[in-house]
Design brief:
globular; 7 helices; 3% strand; two-stranded parallel ribbon; mainly alpha
């Protein structure tokens, strides 16, 4: 009797731990269509008006401002979450007036940066909430998943 009970409990525990809870979110990558093309369009306008002076209209970087595309950018940010990237923008950009962009504006600019780095768009806007952005990894190089 105890043996059957133990086996039953073990089976229930195994099933419970292998099934994610309904509220659990899965980790995503920049290759999963995490922004919309419309959002990237809004981000482009904002980028050109706010960011291009330092980072260049083509995101290649100007003087001390680093590029936001290409190999150097990819190697610096590969594996970092979009939450960390957005937080960096939030506290330090624009350089002449840090902290003045709203979370929505930053998400729009981030969508444009993702677009310019060749990541595919999806159907929904990139979220502006940090909790969701921390579940999206900046995977610079597409894996064979």
């Amino acid at each position: 009797m105890i043996r059957r009970f133990s086996i039953g409990v073990a089976a229930v525990l195994a099933a419970a731990t292998s099934v994610p809870s309904p509220g659990a979110a899965q980790a995503r990558s920049t290759w999963d269509g995490v922004y919309s093309a419309k959002q990237a369009g809004r981000g482009k306008e904002l980028y050109l008006g706010t960011c291009a002076t330092c980072h260049g209209p083509d995101m290649s970087g100007v003087d001390a401002a680093p590029p936001l595309t290409g190999g150097r950018f990819a190697s610096n940010w590969n594996g970092v979450t979009l939450g960390d990237m957005v937080e960096r923008i939030r506290i330090s950009m624009p350089q002449n007036d840090p902290g003045t962009l709203s979370r929505e504006q930053i998400a729009d600019v981030m969508a444009y940066i993702l677009q310019q780095n060749g990541f595919p768009p999806g159907q929904k806007d990139l979220p502006r909430q940090s909790a969701f952005l921390k579940m999206i990894a900046y995977d610079a190089y597409k894996s064979g998943r």
